[in-house]
Amino acid sequence: MARNIILKIPAKINLSLDITGRRPDGYHTLRSVFQTVGVFDTLTVTETAPGEPMTLTCTDSAVPCDARNLVWKAAVRLLGDAPCGFSMQLEKHIPSQAGMGGGSADCAAALIALREMFSPETDDAALLQTAAGLGADVPFFLHGGTVLAEGIGEVLTPLEPLKPCQLVIAKGSSGISTPEAYRRIDTLGTPLPDTTDAVLDALHGDAEALFAVCGNHFDAVTDLPEVCTIREIMRAHGIRPVLSGSGAAVFGGCTDREQADRCTEALRKAGLPFAETVLTVPHGITAERVGF
To answer: CA spacing 20 to 30 A to 284: which of 8, 40, 146, 175?
Structure first.
């Protein structure tokens, strides 16, 4: 029986995101509380004949299945320029250009599976270094749960996992260019209020109090029409909208499932292509192994 690993890959939101400065090399520094949530991609890695070139397929036709894909790049970075002996199938549910880390999460999943199957000599430190070289958010997804990110996102401090909280998350058809979002931040004349310390203080208390202090500096510079529509609908349902990452997904914490479902239904009626009622999840990527 061919070995395979099926990985369930959660998305993330930013409970806070404060831009704290800009380094001489142009990278921005930040403080942010990352949280995994119940929107999942699935990556299946299946062993094939030795020497058979790697293949990648995806359920989303808009996702490239070649060297442009972070999953492909992860395989090359870990195993060399011509990976072989396995196939990868990616089932996408995390929306693209959302600030929910879908590409980075899939990349981390590929690193986890391929190390176990083909590179067991790669230790945790080396895997983390490889992840950091592939993208600022990739190291977070090797851990998942609730994490404080600092520096340019590479300094990670795992926190006590957040208890499950009810959320609504929505995204329109349009995406946001991260470089453009940072450029807009740089042109602001006045400092933006930080929220990370308030989020850290409220993490393990009342959920309503936590979501009342969540915030994101990119909210101040993001005015896509669909984002504005999402904000209006969430506010009409008593939910405080917060951008995730540099956008364009918006989330809000809810008092209960009924409130979340009403808001999700209204978002879908407004024509938003992605609107879901979800829970926060206290863990990262999980794996089911077959044939080991």
So the answer is: 175
